[in-house]
Amino acid sequence: MATGVSVENINPKVILGPSSIAECIVTNARREINRYLTFFFQHLQQQLQTQPGSLPFDEIVYCNIGNPQSLGQKPITFFREVLALCNHPNLLEREEIKSLFSTDAIARAKKILSMIPGRATGAYSHSQGIKGLRDEIAAGIASRDGFPANADDIFLTNGASPGVHMMMQLLIRNNRDGIMCPIPQYSLYSASLALHGGALVPYYLDESSGWGLEVSKLKNQLEDARSKGITVRALVVINPGNPTGQILDEQQQYELVKFCKDEELVLLADEVYQENIYVTNKKINSFKKIARSMGYNGDDLQLVSLHSVSKGYYGECGKRGGYMEVTGFSTPVREQLYKIASVNLCSNITGQILASLIMDPPKAGDASYDLYEEERDNILKSLSRRAKAMESAFNSIDGITCNKTEGAMYLFPRIYLPQKAIEAARAVNKAPDVFYALRLLDTTGIVVTPGSGFGQVAGTWHVRCTILPQEEKIPSMISRFREFHEEFMSQYRD
Amino acid sequence: MATGVSVENINPKVILGPSSIAECIVTNARREINRYLTFFFQHLQQQLQTQPGSLPFDEIVYCNIGNPQSLGQKPITFFREVLALCNHPNLLEREEIKSLFSTDAIARAKKILSMIPGRATGAYSHSQGIKGLRDEIAAGIASRDGFPANADDIFLTNGASPGVHMMMQLLIRNNRDGIMCPIPQYSLYSASLALHGGALVPYYLDESSGWGLEVSKLKNQLEDARSKGITVRALVVINPGNPTGQILDEQQQYELVKFCKDEELVLLADEVYQENIYVTNKKINSFKKIARSMGYNGDDLQLVSLHSVSKGYYGECGKRGGYMEVTGFSTPVREQLYKIASVNLCSNITGQILASLIMDPPKAGDASYDLYEEERDNILKSLSRRAKAMESAFNSIDGITCNKTEGAMYLFPRIYLPQKAIEAARAVNKAPDVFYALRLLDTTGIVVTPGSGFGQVAGTWHVRCTILPQEEKIPSMISRFREFHEEFMSQYRD
């Protein structure tokens, strides 16, 4: 290899070592762990193919990433019809499409094309996204919340992740700027903070109260960071939670909004799982709705709401679509945000169109509505059944407890590891939960993500397990998990 | 507005002020100028609609951005057929598609779906992109160059811009790390360098020799930067040039490759216009082909080649597809690059598919080939005619000279502004070329980008003008331009 650029002289922020960021208690562990697991199960996958019967399982079950369509979830027909027509608008001139596409998909595709200058889905759009699509999304938000929304506040993005990076780029000046993040936490935030050289200010979710949060503790953590010279700029909240699956109750949301207002923190609300709800006693309120219902407007609170086409009942991860709704920022700041958006010209138009569709799906009376409703409800009901089945299975296993998955796509069971297992893990230089997860994979073919990647209270061990495996595979998966766990525990019993 | 985050306390790298980066002689001027022009012509556009006849022109001609489909260029039918089928794979089960899609588009869509685990175009892919598509791209590169290419070296991206940002993120540690960039230069590089806090080390293209470059001068500029304490990490070359439209001759390419090898600089080769060639006496050689034909392999040179679906004869800007081919880096560095790629999970699958299609279009004998060839050749021949017509028109105007557009999509004529015009511009606090461009827009409706946005030798003034207006509009556009220029010159004659 040529020698100019080596791993010793690249940008150290990329290396993401925990030592580079004082407050960063969640490192890029999850990413590293996932890559390690990936390497591991690629070998297993190969062995399954080349030497069938040589392993104690005959397939790998991926519970490590929220990627529904990779596990067989089918896309919503209406959405795909519209995308196909928008990608090849010549079809709209052909009679034959009437037997291939629903009438409302045809009408919607025509409407969307009419919003695009020159009907050109192959042209760069405005860097915030196509204005007509932003209008549709704003109307969808207004109808969801009962409060007005404005297309000028919408930035269409290639999924939620680039929105997070844009905000980090805007907010982080140096390693004395910090962002409050929940622990446990989906590591997008910690990874992005590390890449931008900022400080992670943790606040802990309380496992014993269903991963709830207490504002008084937030205040302590904020004061603590400030006393160390950190300028705390924003607070991240993920609702429903990832990896924790809880839904915040309204009272917690009110307190959180007031806290951010009082402390002049940007509220970064990750609301990508807003359609994934599996309980009837709670509902999802967007933070914008909560803030507005408290009488707070843009003069009171700087609020960024993130949404994505990757989750919900649609699960369109590969389309890379999403949006940020940005309120409460001055015109000069928004201009700088626009400048950041324009550095990559625009997000992909297929993803932009899909973002408008999820915010304005078929309505009762539309030709596609019955099929749409059936597809959507089947997916959500199945996810709900899977969440309950897996949660109750985990809770029935000795040495595991698991909070209810109220929303999102994950369970985050706590594994009570015996001291001997912890020592065995240390002996091979692995975190105990990584040791457990690798052994699980090796024995059962089940891939989960160790809790170390999300952060956890010291001395507690968890794994994140998606609820996405196909429903018919869950009983056998659960029994393999149970059998593994019992053997593991009896091997290492103190 | 709420007050926590204001333009005074955001990340100053975003503000991109020239003073923040010692060596940054090209600032974000082009972006600022484009935004100013955009504001200006949006007003004009509105006035055209609300008060027809009130302006000295009846339409706005956009020559400011390389966005072909926004100006009526039609997409390649085969590509869009494949995208439609991949976006809605259920269509492949229907008989009716035989009358709507070509047989090879159907076969290609099936082949592509077979490369995707679970045929799931809605799933996240590997963070470098779908392996099967990278295989196709590598095969396309190998067939283009006559030297092997490897799917593991390919990173699929949302257009070329994110590839550039990834490399900046990898290479730039602080403001003492620099990148050599051509002047004039498409401002993606200067903007990205500013955002990542690095130093721009300029090397000038020589207008008098058709925007050629001399390696001896490169060496001087490198030494100069080093003497100032800058660690120069990479050299950007754009071939064909943007905004300058030249094609490097082979000798220059050989010297450039040797220079980068000897100086241990990463060669960042922006080759997005590799299909846009309008002369017969030169051909495009990729820098990889040049390096390999000199006997240099990955042990000798760190090379990054950038490509995009946005340019060429396809012009699919809105799809946000592209790739980087990365050779000569050690495994640990590539792992860090992979980590950066994985921060956004993956690029959009529609763009990934399209990137594979442009590297493996229909071949002679395929059902779509005749139509494909006709569409492609019509576009390229028309672009070539437009380039020649506009170049010869500019050269026939007194006070303007224009190098030949050998490739890419732009002319970069030099405007010899009289001293009085320069003073008039200074009096209203504008750069003279901005003053000229705004006056042009105001008088004729023609939008060009002032040379200030790309950098130019001090005391020379240029505008960048795309060759993309529809062919039938070019004669009247040229005559309006000529008439404007003559009036402008007679108004300000010294």
What would you say this structure looks like, in words?
The structure is a homodimer of 494-residue chains. Chain A has 2 domains: 12-72 and 374-492, Aspartate Aminotransferase, domain 1, CATH 3.90.1150.10; 117-358, Aspartate Aminotransferase, domain 2. The model of chain A is unreliable at 17-28 (pLDDT under 50). Chain A is α/β, with parallel strands linked by helices. In chain A, strand 6 (266-270), helix 10 (287-293) and strand 7 form a beta-alpha-beta unit. In chain A, the strands form 4 sheets. Chain A has a 7-stranded mixed beta sheet, with helices on both faces. In chain A, strands 10-14-13 form a 3-stranded antiparallel beta sheet. Chain A is built from 16 helices and 14 strands. Chains A and B meet through helix 1, helix 3, helix 6, helix 7 and helix 11 of A and helix 1, helix 3, helix 6, helix 7 and helix 11 of B. Chains A, B: Its EC number is 2.6.1.2. Chains A, B: Residues 110-472 form the Aminotransferase class I/classII large domain. Chains A, B: Transfer of C3 units between the cytosol of mesophyll and bundle sheath cells to maintain a nitrogen-carbon balance in the C4-dicarboxylic pathway. Chains A, B: Homodimer.
